[in-house]
Structure formats: C-alpha cells, structure tokens
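Honest question from a wet-lab person: if I give you the sequences of every part of a complex, can you actually get the arrangement of the whole thing, not just the pieces? Trying it with mine:
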Amino acid sequence: MAVSCSLFTCPLQGNIAAPKTLECYKEFMCYPSNLSFKQSGCTKPVYQTHPRLLHCSKLSEWEQTDRFLQKDGLQCHGLEVENAPSFSVGKKFQLEDVIEAQQFDRDILSAIFEVARKMEKIEKNSPGSQILKGYLMATLFYEPSTRTRLSFESAMKRLGGEVLTTENAREFSSAAKGETLEDTIRTVEGYSDIIVMRHFESGAARRAAATAGIPVINAGDGPGQHPTQALLDVYTIEREVGKLDGIKVALVGDLANGRTVRSLAYLLAKYQDVKIYFVSPDVVKMKDDIKDYLTSRGVEWEESADLKEVASNCDVVYQTRIQKERFGERIDLYKKARGKYIVDQAVMDVMQKDAVVLHPLPRLDEITVDVDRDPRAAYFRQAKNGLYIRMALLKLLLLGW
Amino acid sequence: MAVSCSLFTCPLQGNIAAPKTLECYKEFMCYPSNLSFKQSGCTKPVYQTHPRLLHCSKLSEWEQTDRFLQKDGLQCHGLEVENAPSFSVGKKFQLEDVIEAQQFDRDILSAIFEVARKMEKIEKNSPGSQILKGYLMATLFYEPSTRTRLSFESAMKRLGGEVLTTENAREFSSAAKGETLEDTIRTVEGYSDIIVMRHFESGAARRAAATAGIPVINAGDGPGQHPTQALLDVYTIEREVGKLDGIKVALVGDLANGRTVRSLAYLLAKYQDVKIYFVSPDVVKMKDDIKDYLTSRGVEWEESADLKEVASNCDVVYQTRIQKERFGERIDLYKKARGKYIVDQAVMDVMQKDAVVLHPLPRLDEITVDVDRDPRAAYFRQAKNGLYIRMALLKLLLLGW
Amino acid sequence: MAVSCSLFTCPLQGNIAAPKTLECYKEFMCYPSNLSFKQSGCTKPVYQTHPRLLHCSKLSEWEQTDRFLQKDGLQCHGLEVENAPSFSVGKKFQLEDVIEAQQFDRDILSAIFEVARKMEKIEKNSPGSQILKGYLMATLFYEPSTRTRLSFESAMKRLGGEVLTTENAREFSSAAKGETLEDTIRTVEGYSDIIVMRHFESGAARRAAATAGIPVINAGDGPGQHPTQALLDVYTIEREVGKLDGIKVALVGDLANGRTVRSLAYLLAKYQDVKIYFVSPDVVKMKDDIKDYLTSRGVEWEESADLKEVASNCDVVYQTRIQKERFGERIDLYKKARGKYIVDQAVMDVMQKDAVVLHPLPRLDEITVDVDRDPRAAYFRQAKNGLYIRMALLKLLLLGW
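Yes, you can. This is the full assembly:
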C-alpha cells in the first residue's frame, strides 16, 4: 500500500477497525487529514476495514464499492479503551506495509507481540480460525525460500485465508520477458488482497509497496531486509527470557553477512540496559555501521573471542551459520571460520539455567545435534514463533488492530 | 468434457441450472434429443447441475450418484424468462469446454459478459463468495505462465473453490516418461472437477477436452488459441467504450505473431460497423488469413503507418509487445521493429477523450510509463477484467447459467 | 510421529478417537503403558484426538493446550462396538505413520479399505466433506511426482483440509545449504498437521517419522517403499474382483525394478490360496528375495513366458512399464525388453469375462490404447482408487478410526 504512514496523520487512524469485532466509540470518529484526502475531494470520515480500498487516488470511488457494506452510514469505529493495545493513543502506529525492521518502534513491537500471543492460542484451537476467510495472499517469490514461504502460507491458512503461490517468479513470470516489478505488482494486486514478496534485489520490497494499493510484506529482499525474521527473533527472546530490557545477548558467527544479526542488533537498541557481545571469526566481524549505531543509542557492546566466557554471562546466545556462498573461492578461509565457534555441550554446561540458544536456521554444525535435547535449545520454538508473528502481521494488515 | 455441443441439440438445454438459485418453469422441462441420449437408454429429463455427471456414456449412472441430491424427483429446471440471458431461446449456447475464441457467437459473448459483471460485484463483496465451495480446479500448465495461472487460481478461490497446481507439468510429470496427454488427462480428471490447461502444442486443449469427462479450459496452447484472453479483451472494450457495434479499433505492434490481436480481430467481426486499423512494422504485419476473413464478413479494415493519425480516430488503441523470441538471431530486425510504434504522451495527446489504450501485458517500452497515469490507460483494468471473465467461465462450466 | 507403535502397547489405543463422532464406552478407558508415559510423569488417561499433541516429551504440556477442549475432564473415548472396524479388539492396529507396505497386516488392510469405501461416497457428495477442515498437510517432495502429489492434495482438499506445497524441496529448500532432513522436518512440523514426503533416498521416510511429532506418510522414498501405491493396488483388486483370497494374479513387465510389483507380491502373501505368475523379459526378472518370501509364506508362484496362456487363467493381469532409466546405455536391451509382453486386444480376447487389467501408470505402449475401451481395463479406476485410499489414510491419521 503505497499511501503509507505519512498520509495518515490522523491520530486515531490506527484504532479504526472492523465493526463486527469492535464497538463504536464516539470519541474515535475521525476525519481525514487535510494533507491527503482533500486532494481526492473526500470530506467523509475514513473507515479502514479493507485496506485494499484505500488507494489515495481512488478515494472517491471506494465509497461506492459493494465491498463496503455500510457505505450509507459511513462511520469511524474504534477499539474500546479496555481492548486497546498498550501504546499511547495519538502515536502513529498504523501498519500498512512491512518493509524493514527500522519501521517498528518499541510500542508497535509490543503491540504486534500482543497479537502474536493471541495467535498462539488461535493456532492451537481446533478446527482453526476463520478470521481471514475470503482473503487471498499472493506469495511472489523471485528466489526460492521454502522455509519462509511455508511459514507465511501456513500463517494465512491457519487464519482461514487462501494463498496464490509463485515459487520461482524470476524464471517463470513475465519478468523473464522484461516486465518491470511495478507492472507485475499492478497485475498481482488485482488478484489478491496482500502480497508477500521475496526478491533478489535490495529495495525491491519498498518499490513494490510504493506501487501496490494493497499491503506488501517484505519476506527478504537480497542483502537488504528480512523484517519478519527480526520480529520473530525479538519475540522469541521476550517469550523465552521473559523480558527485553536489561538482557545480555551474544551474537555469534557470521556477523558481517548475516542480515538477521544486524537487524536484531538494531531492534535491541530500542530497549533499556541491553548489552551485546559480538563473537565472530575475524573475517566476518560485525561492521562499524551497527557498532556506531549502538554506541549512538547508548547500547553497551563488546567484541570477544571467548565464546564460553560470553555464554556463561548471557541470557541469549544467538548463533548463526557461516555463509559459504559469501566466501567465493576462498574455501580455506571459510573452513577456518566455520569451525571456530561451535555451540556444543561444553558451551551449554557453562550457560545459565534460564539462558537460551537461538539460531535463525538452517543450521549446519555450528550447533551440535546433541544440544537439541537441552531445554535451553530454543531454535525450533523460535522457528515456530515465526508462524505466530506472521499470523499477527497478516491479521493486522488485513483487519487492523 | 468431450461430449460437447453437438450432442445437446435439445433447444432448452442451456437454460437448465441449479435449483437453489432458479425457479422451476414448466415450459422448460426438456427431454434429451434422440441423437444423444437414446444410446444410453436415458428417457428422463436431463438436469445439468453437475457437468461432471454428464458423461454421455454414463448417463444411466449419474442418476444413482449421491452427488445428485434430488435424484428421486428428477426434474428439469430453467431460468425464468425475466432472468434469462439476452439471447434467443432455441439457440445452442451451452458451455461445456472453452477451447477457442471461434466457439463463441455474439449471443454467448453477451451472456458471458453479463455473468462477468455479476462477478465484479461478487469479487468486491466481503467475505467472499462460496458458490464453488467443494469444487476443485486443476491447473495443468505444461509451460509456465504465472500471470495466467494466478488469474485463474484467484478466480477459483474468489468463488470459494479450491485448486490443485502444476506449474511445470512438462518437466515434472509423467509426460517426461512418455505418457500421452490423454492418459494424463484421464488421471487428473479423477482428482478434480475442472481442468485449466496451458500447453506448448497447438490443438492440445481440444485433445484434452475430447478425452476429459469434466470441463476443460484452454489457457493457451502454443501458437494456437488463448480464448480467455480474447474474451477479456472484448469484455474490456465493452466496459470501457460502452459498446461494441460501431467502434474503431487500432491493432498495433506485432500483428504477425500475436495470437491476442488475431483472436480479437476474429471476435470483433461478430459486431456491426466495426472498423479495424492495422499499425505494425513491415516484418510483423497482420497475415492475410485474418484480412480475408474480415473482408468476407464485411468488416472494414485498413493498414496504416501513421500511429498518431489512427489513434486520433479510434475508440481503442490495442498495443502489443514485439516478441523478441520470434526473431531468432535477427536482433537487428527486432530492435528496428520494437522502437517503431510507441504509445507515449504525444499519442495520448491526439487521442479522443473517451478512447482507451489496451495491452495484453507484459509491457516493455511500447507504452511509456508516463502514460500509466492517464485515465485512458486501461491495461491494468483490462488485466483485472481477466479475473472476472475467468470467474464467469468457472461458474458457467461448473454450475451452469 | 516419532513415538510410533512400540510406545503404545495399550491394547485399546487404536479405538480412541474424537468425541464428536464417537460415544464414550467405559471399557475402553485406557491408561498409558509404563514404558512411555511414566517418563513424562503423566498418569492420566491418554486421549488421541490430535496426533500433534502426542509428543512423548511434552505429555505434561498437551493437557494444557487450548486445542484440547475438554481438558478438565480427561477421558478416553472409544468406538462403540457396532461401529468398530472388523478386526479383533486387542490387536495393535493404530495408525501413526505410513512408512512401508510391511507395516500393514490383513486386519488393518481390511479396516483401511472399509474407510476408503466410505470415502468414495464422500467424494461423490456435493458440496464436499469438511471433516478435515482446519487441518494442514505439507507435501514435502524432494523429487517431483506430479501424479502422486496431486492425488494426495486432492484427497486432502476433498475432505476440507488445506495444503502447503513444495514440489522441488531438493533444489529449493535449505537442504541445498546443507540442512539435515531432521532439521527440515522439525521446522515443517511446526507449520502443518501432517507431512506427506517424497524423497530420493531409501529410508528417508522412516527418519522423518522418527523425528516428527506429527504423522508422516511416505509418498515414495527412492528405490525403497511407496506404500500408498501398494494399498491402492490391493484395494483395486478387491473392488474389481470382489475378493482377495483365492485369486490368481499375473505380474507382467519390469519385475526387477518395479517397486509396485514387489510390494504387491508382498501384500498378496497375506491372503489365502493366492497364486502369482511372473511374466517378464529375462533382464528384468523378479528377484529371489520376493520369490523366497512367497515360498516361505506358502504362496504358490511360477514364472512363465507365455502371457496369453497366463492371462487366460488369471483374475488380474498387472502390467508394468519397462523402466528405460534403469538400462543406462544398454538401449538395445531396453528396446528388446520393452516390446516383449504387450497387453493388446489379442490378450484381452483370451482373458476371462470378470478378469481385469491393472497398471500403476504412467503407461507407454505396454498396453495398447484400443484396450482402454474394454470394461476390464481397470487402470484408470485404479488411479482413482488412489484418491480414496489417500483420503482414508489422511482421515485415519488425523482423526483416528
């Protein structure tokens, strides 16, 4: 959805939601801000049930669409106060696309996590939720990523929604004939209600969102962003450790190339009294941009070459895979780096009783298989949390808070 | 469905439909024609709710199937007169397969478009129609075409139906082991209620339909037919221009290889006082067979090298992509042809206020991007119309009129 | 589901099923065996509604999950006697995974076939069953097999369930990065309720089942097993011939490489007075292990080079394709073998009136096309039976008997 946050400066926008589940609350009636809607001649209250209707350029049209059932009595409904998420009313927290980890502040993370916890319950209920029944998600994957795709598709289907799949859009689609991403998006948005896109080029998700009149979720764009992974990482830490303020986190392995650890460091900086340890082979050290950012935010960090000592001290050991594909022909360097920091039983033995080991997966041998049996090995629960986060985002983008 | 039109010469056949949505109308009671049903010993009225039941060779069986719920009171229901599509009763208009543009006459086009307009409303309604709930569509694609596949799958799911997908049947399926298309169809028809097939060989769809006991839709068979594209093109012209009789249409670009423009020319010949302009580089001129056909049907046409003059004169400018893949090694010829006729702002400036630009997509640079903002740029609406046409066809083939 | 049969030695386990469809029967109350559940401290009755809850290591947890709606009144429900399948109570017949043909005895085959016959009725009913609504099946295919995949996905969808698809897990998934099968399974089980896996390595299905906390169905693992094909073959013989005891079966074609004929011979040995004829070119004769097995079970068998004489004598002629891919560069041997035993009209002419021809498909020219018209050509009905068998297995694994 191209319109994005800047157009919706109306402070109550975020609370606007579907009438079936929410009661009308008169103080939440809202009129569009001058900035955006005057252009399209709209002077009526805005009603954000169906994000697909909110093309700025078509505002005069959506009032006439049949999809909006109560068009004659256009009203703005909001969450009642007691149901509202725990962030201050008046802040800009509406969610229209999920493009990068940086778009989330502490309040919106907290709100998303609250929804994700509800999703855990929904997922365990039989025979399954139908809250997204009638909604269609298009998974537009320009490079394959079975794990991420299945997670999103499971999330959609667990909520009763339906899916259109392209596993290999790069080869198969009109892109091979030279069609622009923008044209593809304009076509696909006609067939679906939300687009989940994986692309090989950094920035592709932002371009897609700028084009689409429906929500876009970035499922990874090249070396760029993979925001839902960052969200599930933070969510898992909160679920496993019980808090985010005051935690100590070791980031281990390929810190130069791993976009997960970079995004995680970025998000952790939003919390109080966090301390981060970087433990990595010299060739794949954390880059200065993140270090500088942490410093600028007052986050304490240090580099260490002693995994055991760090592990004994931390709440979270976040291990990552050394990415062979980044080493090119320097297989010798790769092999040396790969074997350097392994999480094995010896590391587990020094870890605290309530600490956890995380890993974005896939895992090779940087965590030994015998560790799996340890209850502190949280990486498969972490993968499962990805489902809940994606269910939450789909719910929020399609139905609102 | 192999039985096809010729067997159903009973004049009222086409009006037979599901009892839930239609009222019984005694004059529409019909008995099978001598030609077809005597062979199978059936002397009861025919009831066309479930096309899958209408195997001619199994007519005695379908009365016993559980799927037919009112088997004890076999009756023939029809549309009431005021609900009937706008074609004369007595004409042969039933739809059993969609194989080629030529199978549609003016009346059946009009009837399909009427259903498509209803589908526009259904698609915009929340939470989505369920009229095809319980039906399974198999998309059997022997060559990839993500755009067409997603359009069909979206159509099916918007109506509550389900989909089995094969994106790359040529490589993956038993075809690689030497299985005939006929054998594949006989297997797939056991798993689904309707088959949408894309194939690399001209005539494959007809062979599939001749084998299958369930409806088959041709989603493109090699250089042959792509009838749903032809239907959505004509539907778009009617929706955008408001009429089909008396219109002036410019076909621009690759007229030699483009099956869309060839099918469109064919269908336009069914309307009154149509004038067609051909504007194309010399190497990809419209072939004589279509020209001769138009002449034989009394359709006025002319060739022109002046796109602006033609555009200023037409209701529809139908631009197409020069297909590089047809030029082989003659890249020089391709480049020359590709740049010759571009729809840009200068062309838009001379076009009439109510005229529209169409394009089957994907588009390269034969329409410049700045044209997209012009309300007369109808090609993305055209792509969306493909959804409605396909919804209409699925509904008609599975449930009847 | 890793726990598998050995843990559930409680004799009544198999009868435990969902409370909605079954009445409580006090004598069926069961406590977990000492072997398995004491470890997790569980002393309450076990209730097998949702196989996903039966992680042995998490037994104390599942009592708290929301998915189990009657958690406060934990009880063990069973089939009433009059609804029970026709095998003796007390036998171990519960179904937790489908890994190999050998796991089925005569009683369980009979019980599965009883469910499959019910599925035939369900499949023909409109608008389709919803008994698996809310359940998600992951089709994890490490090598493509469109026919098998579509059959499973159709089975799931005909019962109202949903599907996550990977057609080419080998290339696309994390496997390419070196992830173990076990790690992949641990991730995928978090996204779905049942896994249908096709793999290129013999034994892969067993490894997956040993890891997964949800049911796993083997859809073929390399040269190893393809148990659902074996089940549908036996089911088809029973449906077509009307019995399994006392039948005469000719296995024709590639008996050395065809896993279908090997599994079929194995399963037929469970029935009384079966006689098996092997008719094959010398280079692809049935191997000694199966012959020895049949002899050890008292099953009569003989080899013959006269297809017509055998066919005139049998209830079932099971033809198979000579697998070119097994001959490597010896194309001459392949060609010679391929043409040797063809089922054509001349063979049909000598066959008995009630005998049938089967074939696992795909078929090349080892059965001539003119035979298709003969009512005794049962191979397409056989393919359809695969749907019913898979529907039955999905129902049994997810909901119980």
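Two things worth pointing out. The radius of gyration of chain C is 22 Å. The longest strand of chain C covers residues 136-141.
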